[in-house]
């Protein structure tokens, strides 16, 4: 740390919901621990995230003595999670989770729910947040601001103040690059969000897919009552993704800089939960089932889901026994529904072959990095997918709604896992999911899944990983103008595109710079 040069001051503005906030926590840590930099990090969010900011700050100061503590600024108003819990939004999401057929009516419903989830605040609530963000922005007098793209009130304030800011996002390249694809490919080549069409789309499904995409666009442009809060799209987008773990895209926008997965530091399992650590290291293959905080099992309403999940585990255990009694065990964070699981897997639960808990005390990244997990089963959230990729663990994805379907497709495109409920029409069906688990964990192709997962993990962790790459590019923005949004760079000029995985993420970013995409 230099005593003669003023510290670079960075303000991070994000929602407190972990799906968005985790990349900001990861980059906070990276900014503070860069060996050759003196950085003062200001973290502005809602109070719920404050304990995790403190933990991240402690990690950084432990790993780099002399690092500055993160300065937390509390934002007033309704946070996004509280806004999501309105009865009307919860009811609509629940209806989508019980998806049945792909239809025009369901396409409209999916789009309207997605718009409500991404912008859940009412007009008065939206306005209530803005003065707090404006006051923090003015008082900090930062060199550069990184903002969560789902934090619309903050984006509105920054545009009004004409602040120097960039976007830091856990989202994927595809989310930002679709309008830049040639030959109108955004309207036909890629599956419509929320559908179970495979990629590549069979020819007989192309008309339906195009119609669904057009209907979704029309709905979002003309029938969204909250769209008044959204204006022109924003400037520089930093993404927790890489071309090597993405759909094959012909063009990547010049203002998009893929950095790779941005993971926040976590205590090893041995420190966070010694009992779990001992269980994980008993030997054999472990299947880790964690469907996140938005999926619940109970003995009444969702008892069937718990039963189907337990039935899938039974299929895997029985097949392993048939193959010669291979050692193995599985862990699951089921929330409620343990009684249903015990009825199906009672003997294995008693013998600790299956371990069911309400909550996993250790961070998912710590469990995945323990070196004991042969397969992770998750709901297809961006963080879950990227954490699993970074750990080099094969995965089975159980998407329930909207963008989670894309991550199931990615797992299969990248040959690191399977889509576990393509045919189920619900969270899972025991025979379908069971066959996917068998394929990934003990099937003939399981070594290939594991090898490909390890190769992608090496790519994601090179050059310090996504959080360090993003941190350096955020600092590099200081003193530079934001580049204009361009038409994109043909990916034929780049390497590192699926299925090639022998390029480092930093190499990809260097090529973007040579292409004139950014003033960094």
From TrEMBL:
<protein>
    <recommendedName>
        <fullName>Erythromycin biosynthesis protein CIII-like C-terminal domain-containing protein</fullName>
    </recommendedName>
</protein>
<dbReference type="InterPro" id="IPR010610">
    <property type="entry name" value="EryCIII-like_C"/>
</dbReference>
<dbReference type="Pfam" id="PF06722">
    <property type="entry name" value="EryCIII-like_C"/>
</dbReference>
<dbReference type="InterPro" id="IPR050426">
    <property type="entry name" value="Glycosyltransferase_28"/>
</dbReference>
<dbReference type="GO" id="GO:0016757">
    <property type="term" value="F:glycosyltransferase activity"/>
</dbReference>
<feature type="domain" description="Erythromycin biosynthesis protein CIII-like C-terminal">
    <location>
        <begin position="356"/>
        <end position="458"/>
    </location>
</feature>
């Amino acid at each position: 740390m230099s005593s003669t040069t003023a510290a670079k001051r960075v303000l991070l503005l994000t929602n407190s919901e972990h799906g968005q906030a985790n990349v900001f926590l990861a980059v906070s840590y990276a900014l503070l621990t860069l060996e050759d930099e003196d950085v003062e990090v200001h973290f502005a969010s809602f109070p719920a995230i404050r304990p995790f900011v403190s933990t991240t700050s402690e990690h950084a100061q432990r790993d780099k003595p002399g690092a500055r503590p993160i300065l937390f600024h509390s934002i007033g108003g309704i946070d996004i999670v509280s806004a999501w819990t309105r009865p009307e939004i919860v009811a609509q999401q629940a209806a989508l989770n019980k998806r049945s057929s792909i239809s025009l009516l369901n396409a409209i419903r999916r789009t309207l729910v997605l718009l409500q989830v991404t912008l859940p605040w009412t007009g008065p609530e939206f306005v209530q947040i803005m003065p707090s963000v404006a006051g923090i922005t003015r008082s900090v007098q930062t060199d550069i601001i990184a903002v969560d793209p789902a934090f619309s009130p903050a984006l509105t304030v920054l545009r009004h103040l004409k602040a120097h800011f960039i976007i830091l996002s856990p989202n994927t390249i595809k989310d930002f690059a679709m309008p830049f694809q040639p030959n109108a490919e955004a309207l036909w080549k890629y599956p419509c969000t929320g559908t179970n069409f495979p990629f590549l789309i069979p020819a007989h499904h192309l008309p339906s897919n195009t119609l669904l995409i057009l209907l979704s666009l029309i709905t979002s442009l003309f029938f969204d009552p909250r769209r008044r809060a959204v204006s022109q799209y924003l400037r520089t987008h930093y993404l927790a993704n890489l071309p090597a773990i993405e759909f094959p895209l012909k063009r990547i926008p010049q203002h998009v800089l893929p950095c790779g997965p941005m993971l926040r530091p976590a205590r090893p399992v041995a420190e966070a939960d010694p009992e779990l650590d001992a269980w994980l290291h008993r030997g054999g293959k472990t299947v880790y089932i964690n469907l996140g905080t938005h999926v619940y099992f109970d003995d009444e309403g969702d008892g069937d889901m718990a039963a189907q999940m337990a039935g899938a585990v039974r299929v895997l255990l029985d097949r392993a026994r048939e193959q010669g009694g291979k050692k193995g065990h599985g862990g699951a964070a089921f929330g409620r529904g343990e009684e249903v699981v015990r009825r199906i897997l009672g003997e294995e639960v008693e013998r600790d072959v299956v371990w069911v808990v309400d909550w996993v005390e250790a961070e998912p990244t710590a469990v995945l990095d323990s070196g004991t997990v042969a397969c992770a089963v998750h709901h297809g959230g961006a963080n879950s997918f990227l954490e699993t990729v970074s750990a080099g663990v094969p995965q089975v994805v159980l998407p329930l709604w909207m963008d989670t379907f894309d991550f199931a497709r990615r797992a299969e495109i990248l040959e690191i896992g399977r889509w576990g409920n393509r045919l189920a029409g619900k969270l899972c069906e025991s025979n379908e999911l069971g066959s996917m688990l068998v394929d990934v964990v003990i099937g003939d192709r399981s070594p290939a899944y594991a090898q490909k997962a390890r190769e992608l993990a090496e790519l994601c962790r090179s050059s310090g990983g996504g959080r360090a790459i993003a941190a350096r590019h955020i600092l590099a923005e200081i003193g530079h103008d934001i580049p204009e949004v361009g038409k994109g760079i043909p990916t034929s000029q780049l390497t590192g595109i699926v299925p090639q995985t022998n390029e480092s993420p930093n190499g990809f970013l260097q090529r973007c710079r040579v292409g004139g995409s950014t003033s960094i």
